[in-house]
Structures are given as C-alpha cells and as structure tokens.
Backbone:
C-alpha cells in the first residue's frame, strides 16, 4: 500500500526536534532558578513598636507587644522611623537591640536600642526622638512562608542574628 502523505513523512523524518529540546532546557533552567530562590531566599519579618524615650546614655527605649518577648534578643537589627519635623531630615535611623528590659504594666515589652548616631543629623542630637521602631524578629524562606500559610508548620524558627 502506498503512503498517502509522502511529503509529510519526509518532513517528520528530517525533523530532529532541536527547537523542542531547546525550549524544554530553557524551561528546566528557569524552574531550577525559581526553585533555588523559593527554598534558599531569605525574607525578613519585622515587628512594629513605638519609641518611648531617649536615655542619658543615648539609648532609645521602645515598646512592642508583649507577645514578641520570646522573639526579641540583643543584637537584632532595628530601624527607627521618626515622626514630625525630624522625619524631613532623616527617613530612618539604623539601630540594634541592646537589651530586652522586660514587660511593662500595660502588656508591652520594653527594649533598649543602640542607635547609629553617625547617620543622625546633628540637629537631632540630644532631642527626644518620637516615632516607630521596626525590629527584625525572624527570617524565613518563601517555601516556609507558603507552608506556614497552608498550616503545615506551627512554629517557625526564630532568626539568630548578631551585631554586624
């Protein structure tokens, strides 16, 4: 019996599938890169609090919710965002947790912060700083966040950071 589509079979025999193989390889490389990011990237979770006062030794005292007391340790990174006229001079001030002072009567945990005064404009030195503080309390991969959102893990590991 004769083949009814001789040119079609000749085209199929001559096709080596290079474009398909190249497309699959590119897709696999993109999948590998995305997977590496998904499991290895680090996303920092910050918790917000309020700046209460500045001490005589130039530490800043801030309060955060008492539920975070177990997650707060000396050496954690923090940022102070000023409010009012001072906010026009500097967007945020880097700091680090110096000490966890304890839980107050109004169910807040007090922390002392070392402020990097070299980035603070001299016009703000010695003044009471008013604003909010953000403290880095945990670092997780996107995979851990997705698993946590799906209810797979109950406790996420806390970040272990030290002064840099």
Residues:
């Amino acid at each position: 019996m004769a083949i009814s589509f001789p040119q079609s079979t000749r085209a199929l025999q001559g096709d080596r599938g290079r474009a398909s193989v190249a497309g699959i390889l590119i897709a696999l490389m993109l999948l590998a890169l995305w997977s590496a990011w998904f499991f290895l990237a680090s996303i920092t979770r910050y918790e917000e609090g309020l700046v209460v006062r500045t001490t005589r030794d130039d530490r800043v005292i801030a309060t955060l919710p008492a539920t975070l007391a177990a997650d707060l340790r000396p050496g954690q990174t923090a940022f102070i965002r000023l409010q009012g006229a001072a906010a026009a001079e500097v967007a945020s001030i880097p700091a680090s947790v110096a000490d966890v002072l304890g839980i107050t009567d109004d169910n807040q945990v007090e922390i002392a912060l070392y402020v990097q005064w070299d980035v603070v404009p001299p016009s703000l030195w010695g003044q009471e700083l008013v604003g909010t503080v953000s403290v880095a309390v945990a670092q997780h991969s996107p995979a851990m966040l997705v698993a946590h959102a799906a209810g797979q893990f109950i406790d996420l590991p806390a970040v272990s950071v030290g002064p840099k």
User: Anything to note?
Assistant: The chain has a mean pLDDT of 82. Helices lie at 6-14, 18-40, 142-149. The chain has two domains: 6-40, 43-149. The longest strand covers residues 43-54.
